[in-house]
Amino acid sequence: MGIRVRLYSRLKEIAGKDEIILNQVPRNVGELIESISRTFGEEFRKAVYQEERLRDNLMILVNGHSIKLLKGIETPLTEDDNVSIDVIDLVEIIGGG
What's the rounded Cα separation, in Å, for the pair 11 and 36? Predict the structure, then answer.
């Protein structure tokens, strides 16, 4: 079947789709991100990487669990896994009156 990857917000716009199914399952999250970055090009790479490391505002979930609570980019993957990737852009709102 393959591994299912859901893309959200800006990543969805860059890729032109909200879901990818990879027939060849990467060993871990780091390899998955590299594979997707090669597929969708430099704009995608810039959206997920900053100075050769994953951006702090990148949220990656494997089966609903943040990789930050698992093994980070070394989190292993299997073909039954569901991966969600999103970039959380926070806009600071300044109010006054």
Answer: 11
Nearest to 85 by CA among 93, 96, 75, 95: 75
Please provide residue 31's backbone torsions phi and psi, each rounded to the nearest 5 degrees.
Answer: -65, -35
- The reported pTM is 0.87
Q: Which amino acid does the sequence have at 71?
A: K
Can you identify the CATH homologous superfamily of domain 3-87? Beta-grasp domain (3.10.20.30)
**DSSP classification of residue 58:** E
pLDDT in tens, 25-80: 999 999 999 999 999 999 999 999 999 899 999 999 999 999 999 999 999 999 99
For residue 68, count CB atoms less than 10 angstroms from its CB and return exposed for 0-12, middle for 13-18, buried for 19 or more: exposed
Domain boundaries of the chain, sorted by first residue: 3-87
Dmax over CA atoms of the chain, in Å, equals 56
